[in-house]
Amino acid sequence: MRTYVYVDGFNLYYGALKGTPWKWLDLVALFQIVLRQHHDILKVKYFTARVSGAPTDESQPLRQNVYLRALQRFRPEVEVHFGHFLTHRVRAPLSQPLAGRHTAEVIRTEEKGSDVNLAVHLLNDSWLDAYDCGVVVSNDSDVAEAMRLVREQHDKQIGLITPGARRTSQQLKKHADFVRHIRANGLMRSQLPDPIPGTNIRKPAAW
Prior knowledge:
Blueprint: E1 2-8, H1 9-17, H2 27-34, E2 40-48, H3 60-74, E3 78-82, E4 84-98, E5 101-112, H4 114-127, E6 133-137, H5 144-153, E7 157-162, H6 170-173, E8 178-181, H7 184-188
Helix pairs in contact: 4-5
């Protein structure tokens, strides 16, 4: 079965990878474990945004860039699609008011575009008849409508992979033909080689 996998990168990171030693992740190998043998994975589309270095960790952009280079060199079936970060000042309530102050101005940074880009690609590839099964890797209910349209109007199978141990979104689940979960054992068994063969690209030391 021709299969395309659509990965919400930040949903995957915060749901399954953060705080683990498995960030040097081979996406194709992982989904070969999570899915069934009849799924022929033709393409993995990875939706993310370029991170900015935090004051406490200025090397974040370098590590991300190294990982994306490694992934694409080792797995040519992986495509990376970028959204962007939006940073703005907002006034938010304090959980414990101090000296008559009930709010404070904070800087909020939000990742924009990945869920929309994922939904558009899922729909467009369906119209192009690029796959028989589209697999969404996310727990973000914003892509539910795209899943519904593909399943109901394009006669495609839709799979859902929930990152980590979180409870699967019911809004997504009702539009999926099957649901799988990413487990720690699968992450451990799906690491990229270090270094990437034929290159000098190595796993970041902090990972």
